[in-house]
Amino acid sequence: MSHWDAIGYFAAGMVFVAFGMQEMVALRIVAMLSNLAFIAYGLGLDLTPVWLLHAVLLPLNGWRLAQALQCAKRTRMTIAANAAASTAKCIVFAKKPSAPRTLSKNRRVAAVRDRACRRILPNDTERVL
After folding, report:
1. How many domains does the chain have?
2. What is the pLDDT of residues 88-97, one digit of tens each?
3. Are 43 and 90 in contact (CB under 8 A)?
4. What is the pTM of this model?
């Protein structure tokens, strides 16, 4: 087996691993690794369709990775701010039963507040929290 074959098998393995992933940030990182490996493989064996496709997919995966990281950061900040506000409400209004519902409502708002986040983040944001 030549070193080009090894690079090709590595790239194919990364694609296989990416299909089994659930977390979007890790998936994009693995997809970018497979893009780089396929670019090397395609250039090394002069397979223009292979390296050209992955040369186009690499910046697309990078853009989607940046989007997922930004969305996850905004969601974490929103949830943290809402949890702090809810905690403050619980301290001030300790006898009001609405405080737990407020936190639950705020989590729902954070999960669906941005259409881009709904496409990028998994539906089970409660598990991510």
Report:
1. 1
2. 554 544 444 5
3. no
4. 0.64
